[in-house]
């Protein structure tokens, strides 16, 4: 629900621009470059309106790591309600309307792309079986995309703990499922035996939890 076609110009697509966050400014650049279609990652328009709908899948991911499904669902419902209220007042259709005025085909692909990342990381961890936190970081830094991000100071970052610690049971969470989940879930994950979390979203509130 958070991925959709926002505008279809009906024109043949020969040149595409892809970006993480696309706003009117990026669409104008695309027009200047002779681009026929733009693909964004983060939800906009109707996709942003339904961001909270995809967050339910986080409960299933947590259950895979031993968190009781009823506990995960209960905590996620509270967080989902927060996110729904948070995105409600946003100017959702600013970018889609800009694309329409520019006659520029415009789509965004959010959760399907995040699902691919989550699957890749889960398979990588299961294959390499890192023992220490430092080994996880090293493993991630050797992934081409993360290696490139590190050049800009945006590579894998340790938000809590010590890289010399043993990793223990590793959980790949908050990579997919909309945005970060409930900060209260970490205690439940620890109770389920999780020692290290690989996540995409970590606010200060979640880090402190």
Polypeptide structure, described:
The chain has about 210 residues and is an alpha/beta fold. It has one domain (about 5-130, about 165-209). It contains ten helices and six strands. The protein has helices spanning about 25-30, 45-50, 55-65, 70-85, 95-100, 110-130, 135-140, 145-150, 185-190, 205-209; strands spanning about 5, 15-20, 35-40, 105-110, 170, 195-200. A four-stranded mixed sheet has the order 1-4-3-2. A two-stranded parallel sheet has the order 5-6. Helix 3 packs antiparallel against helix 4. The longest helix has 19 residues, at about 70-85. The protein is globular. The model has no long low-confidence stretch (mean pLDDT about 90).
């Amino acid at each position: 629900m958070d991925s959709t076609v926002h505008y279809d110009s009906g024109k043949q697509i020969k040149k595409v621009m892809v970006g993480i966050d696309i706003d009117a400014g990026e669409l104008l650049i695309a027009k200047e470059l002779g681009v026929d279609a733009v693909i964004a990652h983060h939800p906009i328009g109707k996709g942003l309106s339904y961001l909270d709908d995809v967050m339910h899948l986080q409960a299933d991911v947590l259950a895979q790591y031993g968190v009781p499904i009823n506990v995960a669902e209960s905590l996620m419902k509270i967080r989902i309600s927060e996110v729904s209220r948070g995105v409600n007042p946003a100017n959702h259709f600013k970018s889609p309307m800009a694309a329409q005025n520019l006659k520029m085909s415009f789509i965004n692909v959010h959760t399907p792309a995040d699902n691919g990342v989550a699957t890749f990381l889960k398979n990588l961890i299961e294959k390499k079986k890192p023992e220490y936190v430092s080994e996880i970081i090293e493993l991630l830094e050797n992934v081409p995309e993360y290696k490139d991000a590190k050049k800009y100071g945006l590579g894998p970052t340790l938000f809590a703990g010590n890289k010399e610690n043993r990793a223990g049971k590793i959980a790949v969470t908050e990579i997919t499922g909309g945005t970060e989940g409930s900060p209260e879930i970490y205690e439940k994950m620890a109770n389920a035996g999780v020692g290290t979390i690989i996540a995409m979203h970590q606010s200060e509130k979640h880090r402190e939890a």
